[in-house]
Specification:
This protein is of the alpha/beta class and about 280 residues long. It folds into two domains: about 60 residues; about 190 residues, Vaccinia Virus protein VP39 (Rossmann fold, 3-Layer(aba) Sandwich). Helices cover about 40% and strands about 20% of the residues.
């Protein structure tokens, strides 16, 4: 196992940091060897079979082409659950876990009706329903491929969520939609000018439809979401958003302009402005 660990380090050292390589190594060993992390750490001198080593080398060949480990393995962890992922959906991230945790803490024991806009893998509504007993959730996405993954993830996690194919920028017949206690979204928010600063594994493999917005209108999705939410939330209901840290104050101003009160801008674990909550009067 130590020899294989050294091989992984050598192959990935020019692409990832030592901390990232350690995390990737653990994910590979867990998946290919079927061992727990504790077993892996306590049995470093075990020999890896030729068949397993061949599988690991195949994984490394994909990783050195910048393909994310989550796509290579076909799954990602999010808030204690496992979700299927492929290049039709974004890989769930830590800041989204923080947003979900905020909602769970706010709505514990309240059985809310939830709408998730731009569901992707479905990790947000599925996790909320799993952790808020009695809640009901609906998820929208423009991508049929993403919705298939979301449905599969709901089945995998034994959670019922209603997913619909709806274009967030052109949601037709919105007056017919339900009223919700919570509307949540992690919409596209990376400007095209920020592409140069994004890791190649994101640029080459993750869906651009779910990532990028024009520099000329970086809040285009937030404007549409706020307009929809102020109509479809119940009085006292909340809108939760993951945001681009560059536009925290602008997004707060936008929500206030659209009629939200008690708008709260929150930093993530790294001290960056990444989440907002607004209340419908």
């Amino acid at each position: 196992m130590q020899v294989t660990r050294k091989l992984i380090l050598e192959q990935l050292s020019t692409i990832y940091s030592p901390q990232e390589i350690e995390s990737i190594t653990m994910l590979i060993f867990e998946k290919i060897l079927g061992l727990s992390r504790i077993h892996i750490r306590l049995n470093q001198h075990e020999t890896i079979s030729t068949a397993n080593l061949t599988q690991i080398k195949e994984i490394l060949n994909r990783l050195i082409q910048f393909e994310p480990i989550q796509y290579v393995l076909g799954e990602a962890e999010f808030y204690g659950c496992t979700f299927k992922v492929n290049p039709s959906v974004l890989i769930p991230r830590q800041e989204t876990e923080e947003l979900v945790d905020w909602i769970i803490r706010d709505y514990k024991n309240l059985k809310p009706r939830i709408l998730d806009l731009g569901s992707g893998s479905g990790c947000i509504p599925i996790t909320l329903v799993k952790n808020l007993p009695g809640s009901v959730a609906e998820g929208w996405d423009i991508s049929i491929e993403a919705l298939r993954i979301a449905q599969e993830n709901a089945f995998r996690n034994r959670i019922s969520v209603s997913f619909k194919c709806i274009d967030l920028l052109n949601p037709v017949d919105s007056v017919k939609f339900e009223k919700y206690d919570i509307i949540v979204s992690n919409p596209p928010y990376v400007t095209f000018s920020e592409k140069a600063f994004i890791h190649q594994n994101v640029i080459q493999f993750e869906p651009h439809l779910a990532l990028f917005v024009p520099d000329t209108d970086p809040l285009i999705f937030y404007r549409k979401i706020a307009e929809l939410a102020i109509r479809q939330l119940k009085p006292g209901g909340h809108l939760y958003l993951e945001i681009n840290e560059k536009f925290g104050n602008e997004t707060v101003e936008l929500l206030a302009l659209k009629g939200f009160i008690s708008v709260n801008l929150r930093k993530d674990i790294h001290g960056r402005d990444r989440m907002i909550r607004g209340e419908k009067p």
